[in-house]
């Protein structure tokens, strides 16, 4: 299945989004850091807060949506018929596209971290530092991207238009930001793990075990629910 998905994938949209969005986030973050270098005095940590400020809060979820919708756009050209008449179970297509989406997002996040390192090392001329916390945050962002991948798989099956998917992903980012910043219902702040993670990027700290457990519990629940909805959406209606 994974080999089949690889053969069907059109990489141009994926490549452009995966390269340009992290690059822009790093460039704008670097410019903002250099413009306020007299205030932002913590070198690597200060630069990290600037490059991740908007990327994790608002750009990463639309990037996931673009990746997922691009993978499903191939199937929409045949109105999903090739999947629906295939002897292979529908859930196998959903899982294989989910794996490819996760792999692309993982590579994109590592590319984002590489850009951050190159900026700090060769443009800002920072001294060497322990990168453990940054690798931790990037690794966690990859894991927490999984529920968003399945959310947008469901939406990408129901909606053909990439533009509408991106618009919905933008609203999702805004909703996630609102949930994580409100203090009325603290539990809701952990429903969207990527947005919650964005709040921790400025702290330079590891997330405690109890909070991680809640984040993973919500993530697993969301994966199960939206996998079921995506699978149901691929079935012919009588």
From TrEMBL:
Pfam families: ABC2_membrane_4. The keyword Zinc does not apply. The keyword Ion transport does not apply. Keywords: Membrane, Transmembrane, Transmembrane helix. The chain crosses the membrane at residues 12-34, 54-74, 94-114, 134-157, 164-189, 209-230. This is ABC-2 family transporter protein. The lineage of its organism: Bacteria, Bacillati, Bacillota, Tissierellia, Tissierellales.
């Amino acid at each position: 299945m994974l080999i089949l998905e690889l053969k069907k994938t059109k990489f141009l949209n994926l490549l452009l989004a995966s390269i340009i969005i992290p690059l822009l986030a790093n460039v704008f973050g670097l410019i903002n850091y250099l413009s306020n270098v007299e205030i932002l005095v913590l070198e690597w940590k200060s630069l990290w807060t600037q490059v991740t400020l908007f990327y994790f809060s608002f750009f990463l979820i639309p990037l996931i949506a673009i990746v997922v919708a691009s993978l499903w756009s191939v199937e929409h050209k045949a109105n999903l018929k090739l999947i629906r008449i295939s002897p292979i179970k529908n859930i196998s297509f959903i899982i294989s596209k989910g794996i490819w989406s996760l792999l692309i997002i993982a590579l994109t996040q590592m590319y984002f971290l590489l850009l951050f390192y190159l900026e700090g090392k060769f443009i800002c001329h920072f001294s060497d530092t322990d990168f453990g916390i940054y690798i931790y945050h990037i690794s966690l962002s990859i894991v927490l991207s999984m529920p968003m991948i399945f959310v947008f798989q469901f939406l990408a099956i129901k909606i053909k238009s990439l533009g509408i998917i991106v618009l919905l992903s933008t609203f999702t980012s805004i909703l996630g930001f609102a949930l994580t910043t409100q203090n009325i219902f603290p539990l809701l702040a952990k429903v969207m793990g990527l947005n919650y993670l964005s709040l921790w990027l400025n702290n330079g700290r590891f997330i405690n075990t109890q909070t991680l457990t809640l984040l993973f519990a919500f993530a697993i629940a969301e994966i199960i629910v939206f996998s079921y909805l995506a699978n149901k959406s691929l079935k012919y209606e009588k």
